[in-house]
Each structure stands twice: as C-alpha cells, then as structure tokens.
Design a protein that fits this description.
The protein is α+β, with helices and mostly antiparallel strands. The protein contains 24 helices and 23 strands. α1 (about 1-15) packs across α11, α2 (about 15-45) runs antiparallel to α20 and α11 (about 340-375) packs across α12 (about 385-415). The longest helix has about 40 residues, at about 340-375. This is ABC transporter permease. Keywords: Cell membrane, Membrane, Transmembrane, Transmembrane helix.
C-alpha cells in the first residue's frame, strides 16, 4: 500500500512539476537560510558553556548613582581582591585578570602573543584543562608561565616545553620565565582568549597600584561556595563598600548623587559570567560581547522566513488543489476514504519537503563561507550532526509537512463530488484563510523593509555626522609590542620629515576608532576640584596631536616644544571646561596629582573621541606618563594611495621586525559600527529573501485566480474591455491585501526600531516617508508579480477561453 502511495505521489508531483519546482525552490531557500541563521543563534548562546562551573562564576562591577546618570564599570583597583578575600569566607575562588601583549623570545624565535595576568585561582575557576606540566598548581611561583597548545607549538615546535625558559618583553624590559604547564586551546566560543598566562603580580605597575584604591585597571571574577546565594552575598558586600570607599561615597553625596532603592550611591555588584557575552552595557571581555538584540533579530528573521515559506507552501498547494479537483472527485466516486486521500496528499507533501530539505542543506553548505564572513560567525555544517540540532530539524520537518500538507488536503476533501465532476469548483470565491496568509506574508516582508530603511539611515547618519576632527586624511599605525612607543614615534617622525605628502606626525596612548589591531583603551582619572568631584577621560599624546588630528583649539594654545613646563601641562575639551566652571579656565591648575598640579594651557572644541553611541565626555590631553601605542600621520589630500604606500614602505624600513597595521582613521571610525552594519545586512538579506519567497506564492495565487476567472476575462474582452483595465481589475484585490499588510506592519516596525534607536545618544528621527517608501516597494513588487499573470490572461484569445469553458 505504501509503495502504491509513493508511486502515485511521484506521478502527481511530476505531472505538476512547475508548481512543485516553485514549491521546492521557495522552501529550500528558506531551509538554507534558517540552517545558517539558527546555527548562528545556537552558537552565540553556546558562548562559555564549556566551563564546568559557569553558573557559579560572577564578575565584579561598580555602580555609581550620580546626579545626572548611573555609571557601571567592571574595572577594579588592585587591592580589592585580597581585601574582599580576607573579609568574606563565602568566596571559594577569586582572580584578577588584566590583558596585554608580549614579545616571546626562545632561541632565535621571536613572536608576538597575547598575555593575561591572573591569580592562581584562575585555572581552578575556568575550565582550561592542563594537558602537560603541573596540573595541581600551574602558577605556583611568580616566574611560572602557562602556554596554550597553540602558543607552545609556535614557540617550541614539537619539543616538550615544560621546564624550559622563555624571555617575555611586555613592559620594555625583557624578563625570564619558566614554562610550568600547557593548557588545552580554548574553543572559539570563549569570552576569554589568551596565548600566555602569568601571575598578576608581574603586571608592570603592580607595586604602585596595590597602594591605590583609585586606580581601576583590571577585571575581577569570583566563584562563591555552593551554598551561597549571589543576591545575598551582593547585599553583604555593601558593608565592605561603605567602609572601604568612604571618601568616594562622601564626595558623590556632596555632588548630589541619587541613592538607589536601598539608599546606596556606590555599590559593588555581581554579573553572572554566563551573561557576559551578551552584556554590552558593561565592558565586554576581549571585545567579544554582542548585543542580544542582534541575536534575537537574527532569530526573528529566521522564524519570519520559515513562516513565510510555510505560507508560500500552503498557497502553492492550494493553487495546485484547484487543478486537481476532478481527480479528487473521481477518487471519491471510486470509493476513496478520507484517510486514504489525506495519506496520499501528505506523502506528496513529505516528498516535496524532503527534496527541499536536502537541497536546502546543499545550498547552505555552499553559502556558508560567505555567510560566516559577513556575520563573523564560527558555525559549521558539522554542528547539524549534534543531537539537539538533529532533534530540532526532524521536529520542524515533521511539523512543516503536517501544517503545510494538511490544509490543502482538507480543502480538497471538502469539495462536493457532484459539483467537482460538473466542473463548477473553480467558481468558488477565494477564502479568508488564503487572504490571511497573504497578508501575513507581506506584513512580515514590509516589516523587514522598514527595518532595513531605518538601519540604513542610522548608519548613513553615523558616517556623515561631523566628528570634530579630521578622519579622512590621517593614517593610524599601531606600534605593537616589539618596539618602544616613544622611541618608535621619534624614529618614524624623523623618517617622514620632509616627505612631500606628509603634513604632521604625532602619537597617542589610545586610537581613534577601532584599528586593525582591534585594541581599545579607556583611562579615567578622578580628583576633587574646588569642593567638587571631577572625572575625566585621559589621553596621553605627543606634540602636534591637535594639528595632526585637525582638532580646533578655541582658547589658549596647544602643547609646544618651546615651553619646557608643558611636560606637566594639560589641554582639555569644552565638556571638561564646563565641569571646572566654564570660563577663564586657561592658566588654572588641576590637582590631578597631589604632588604636582597640572597647568591648563588650552581648551579644544568638543570632538567625538568615542563612538556616537555615547555622549561626548570630559577629556584631558597630557604629554607624559602614558605609552605612545599609536602613531598618527596627517597627509595631503592629493595621491592618498601613493602616500599610504610610502608610509608603509618607510615603516618596514625603520622597523623590519614589527608588522605594519596602518589604516585610515575613517576606516577605524566605521569599524565602530560593525554591529549596526551587520544588523542592516541581516535586515536587507531577510527582506530580499522574504519578498522573493512571498512573490513565488503570490504568483501561484494569481495563477489560481486567473484560472478561476478565465470565462469572466473572455466575456469582458468580448464586451470591449482593454488590457490595462483588465490588468488593474485582476490586480486590485491583491494590492488591497498588500496595503493592508503594510498598515499592520507599520506600528510594529515603528515600535521595534524606536526601541533600537533609543540605545544611541545621537540618532535619526523616524520619518513618515520611510513608511510610504516601504509601502510603495511592497505594492510595486506585488503589482509586478501579479501583472505577469494578469497580462498573460488579458492577452489570451477570448474565443479559446470561452470555448474551453
């Protein structure tokens, strides 16, 4: 019996191959998209799940309830960890973690590696298994170094690294360490990535920082005892905060800080490490944090595409049902039962879905490299073979075949046998279900069109908004760890001196935007000035920084080599000047250092030294005390490409052992908005795919309608109706449904995108014309699709139409 069902199903599928090919194409495209999207979502939610104690690990962060805003920061002072550990017995493990880079030398090999300074508890908390060496206490001694398998192979090749000495240069002075252990390479879905582990006590400024509770420069992670509730422990931490940060709390209250519900203005809180990957409010580890909004948007679009494909499948099946009405009538007459007909149609649906699934997997395999590059995804097709994914795929497959196959089958079984055999089934008016499905399809498509237009507008706004400094003709070059920053700046400045395309050369501690090295730094200093608590961002710079970056000095002057005292001078921005009183601040001293106050020599115009997601903050430029991590070169606008190549050539001549990672500053600023650009790409891709699939279904429905109205069209043509009038008549009902879909989609799209825009300080206003344009696009696409069948029907010979009827 089953064999007969399959043979009959195959015969029927081949007979209606045009419809079935359309069905398979629409469904397979949806399957391919959903495989890649759902695997990406699964991968993002799998971050850090390999840690055995994941649910027990938390990260410290401070919350400051200031008068104007609430600040949260994960940076901690060095003395906090031993003090908290001594104060509370609730803590099982605790570790500090600071990141950096180092040059590793072994024999004639020299490599640049990433380095983490941690406490011994680090490898007890996090699951980075030791595969060689000391498994009990890998970081027992201060000169112990732990390597990953990848780093060990790069440095030592096939030789056993345990017990061997390596030279690390991470502070300007090489030091010798002994390899005590090798840990397994971390997986790609890890928030923590490193090549080398050292004891935290080896950080360059450790001794000085251990005496300061005001210097915050690293992260702290804790694992509580099994019987301790995180919320209860967090509440108990407040006694420690009130005792330890008494002065900070007093200064905040003096400046009008607003207490929280518990009456606290300064709190030490716990962030579950399991939430770290999706936390963008606090500073994410390694730059791997991603907004959950983008992941959920990806998931929603995957669901949209799947729903649209299922609706499309149903519509195509219904359209095919009208051409098979007589077949059903004959089968019923010959004694076919309800379950026999249901089984027959379900097997046909099963075969179509199976073809679509196989084709979709093949398409996903070919499209995956491009998808991974676009969305920075680490997914692979092997992930489909995991039990969870297999169960989901099989479950969705069965569900889709039942939903997509059941309604058309039930619809055909409801035909009255006598009417079917008389040939009157095609006069039945289209049902509400079909219209609801069509409206749902185009509502989702229009929603994606609106989201695409708004994200594109916001990104375009970011790109075109003046930032207050020159970004188009400045090259940013990361110095790296193999050379000293200040020395490299002087050497390279001399190399470029007199070059015709170069205007100015300077250096800075932090980059503008995100350079090719992917590193960003933030330094904030707080002090009391005239009875008020002042906080400012600090940027260490060299001479000619304002000239090189095109920053306008509006009061006073820039740093100058003619003034020997400028080594202790500062230049501030307007926002910082406003904190200090606003007017006549040039010539005053700031008590940033109790021993040696700093003289304000100039005020510069506000500029966006951070991304446009955040408001411009107070900024202070200083000449000394900070490493020159980046070199900036201002060039003339003529022959930009040739000048860039000359700069690269000069760099390689001057520093043959240092990589050149130079980039234009405008490229750096655009990299800050990769998340928004990815979201825009997601919406564009989703909208295009959704519209294509929807149009396939619309084409099938229009074909069904033309078949139903063949006699009507013939009569109208005989009575003198022209082609344009017929096309409009046949398309009108569809266009009404598409307009209704747009009206339904608009409020949802406005609410969603308005919520998204609220995350930006500088943002566009949603304009009415965006919705008008989205409606026009949807209606135009629908009209073109329907017109294809309408014009074909309108051009048909009315004599043949009436004779065939």
């Amino acid at each position: 019996m089953l064999k007969n069902y399959i043979k009959t199903a195959w015969r029927n599928l081949w007979k209606g191959r045009v419809f079935n090919i359309m069905n398979i194409i629409g469904l397979s495209v949806a399957v391919a998209c959903c495989i890649m999207i759902f695997l990406t979502v699964y991968y993002e939610f799998s971050y850090d799940k390999f840690h055995t104690n994941l649910d027990k690990i938390h990260q410290f962060y401070f919350t400051k309830n200031e008068a104007e805003k609430v600040e949260k920061a994960t940076s901690m002072p060095a003395p906090l960890t031993p003090a908290v550990k001594a104060e509370y017995q609730d803590i099982k493990y605790i570790t500090r973690m600071s990141n950096g880079g180092t040059v590793v030398r072994y024999g004639d090999k020299q490599l640049e590696e990433s380095i983490h300074f941690v406490d011994p508890d680090f490898l007890k908390m996090f699951t980075f298994p030791v595969v060689k060496g000391n498994t009990d206490a890998p970081l027992k001694d201060l000169n112990d170094v732990v390597l990953t398998e990848f780093a060990a192979k790069a440095i030592f090749g096939k030789a056993d690294p345990i017990g061997k000495s390596v030279e690390l240069n991470y502070s300007g002075e090489p030091e010798t360490f002994v390899v005590s252990a090798v840990v397994k390479d971390f997986p790609p879905n890890s928030s923590i990535g490193f090549d080398v582990l050292l004891r935290f006590e080896n950080t360059p400024t450790y001794q000085a920082n251990m005496k300061s509770w005001d210097h915050h420069d690293h992260s702290v992670f804790i694992q509580l005892n099994d019987n301790i509730e995180p919320a209860a422990f967090e509440a108990r931490l407040q006694n420690f905060v009130k005792k330890t940060f008494k002065t900070t709390i007093a200064d905040m209250k003096r400046d009008g800080a607003r207490p929280d519900a518990q009456g606290n203005v300064y709190t030490l809180n716990l962030l579950p490490f399991a939430d770290n990957h999706f936390d963008t409010e606090l500073v994410g580890l390694e730059g791997n944090s991603v907004s959950k909004i983008y992941v959920m948007a990806l998931l929603a679009i995957g669901i949209f595409i799947l729903v649209i494909a299922c609706i499309n499948f149903v519509n195509l099946s219904v359209a095919r049902a009208f051409t098979r009405a007589r077949e059903v009538g004959v089968r019923k007459t010959l004694g076919a039962g309800k379950w026999q007909l249901l089984t027959q149609f379900w097997i046909e649906t099963l075969l179509v879905c199976l073809f679509a699934l196989v084709l979709g997997i093949i398409m996903a395999n070919f499209a995956l490299p491009g998808f991974k590059a676009t969305f920075r995804s680490q997914v692979s097709m092997n992930m489909l073979l995991q039990p969870v994914q297999l169960v989901v795929i099989i479950g969705l497959f069965i569900l889709i075949t039942i939903i997509a196959g059941l309604y058309p089958a039930l619809l055909m079984m409801r035909y009255k046998t006598v009417m079917v055999l008389k040939g009157t089934v095609n006069t039945v008016k289209p049902g509400k279900v079909r219209n609801i499905l069509l409206v749902t399809q185009f509502s989702l498509s229009t929603l994606l069109i609106v989201c695409t237009l708004i994200t594109w507008q916001q990104i375009n706004y970011f790109k075109n908004k003046p930032l207050g400094y020159s970004k188009d003709e400045v090259v940013s070059i990361p110095v790296g760890n193999s050379v000293n920053g200040a020395r490299a700046l002087e050497l390279f400045r001399n190399q470029l001196n007199g070059q015709p395309g170069v205007v100015a050369v300077s250096g800075a501690y932090d980059n503008m935007g995100n350079g090719k090295d992917g590193s960003t730094r933030t330094s904030i200093v707080g002090f009391t000035y005239k009875g008020h608590d002042i906080r400012t961002n600090i940027q260490g710079v060299s001479y000619d920084y304002a000239k090189t970056m095109g920053i306008q000095i509006i009061d006073g002057r820039d740093f100058s080599r003619e003034y020997a005292t400028d080594s202790n001078a500062v230049v501030i921005n307007e926002k910082m000047a406003a904190q200090l009183g606003g007017k006549n601040v040039v010539g005053t001293y700031l008590p940033m250092d109790d021993k040696k106050p700093s003289l304000i020599v100039g005020v510069m115009k506000n500029f966006h030294f951070r991304s446009l997601r955040s408001e411009i903050e107070p900024l202070t430029l200083v000449l000394s005390g900070y490493e020159m991590n980046y070199i900036f070169v201002k060039v003339r606008p003529q022959n930009l490409s040739q000048t860039f190549n000359m700069i690269e050539r000069k760099w390689k001549q001057t520093f043959p052992n240092a990589d050149f990672q130079g980039s234009w500053v405008n490229e750096n600023t655009e990299r800050q908005y990769k998340a928004e650009q990815r979201l825009s790409t997601i919406f564009i891709s989703g909208a295009v795919i959704a519209i294509i699939i929807s149009c396939i279904g619309l084409l099938a429905i229009s074909f069904m309608i033309m078949v139903q109205r063949t006699k009507e069209i013939g009569i109208r043509k005989v009575l003198g109706a022209n082609i344009a009038g017929l096309v409009l008549l046949l398309s009108r009902d569809f266009l009404k449904l598409v307009l209704l879909a747009a009206v339904i989609a608009f409020p949802v799209a406005w609410w969603l995108m308005n919520q998204w825009l609220q995350s930006f300080v500088y943002r566009i206003d949603i304009q009415w014309w965006i919705f008008a344009l989205a409606a026009f696009i949807a209606v135009f696409i629908a009209f073109v699709t329907v017109s294809f069948q309408s014009i074909k029907a309108a051009l048909a010979n009315p004599v043949r139409s009436l004779r065939s009827e």
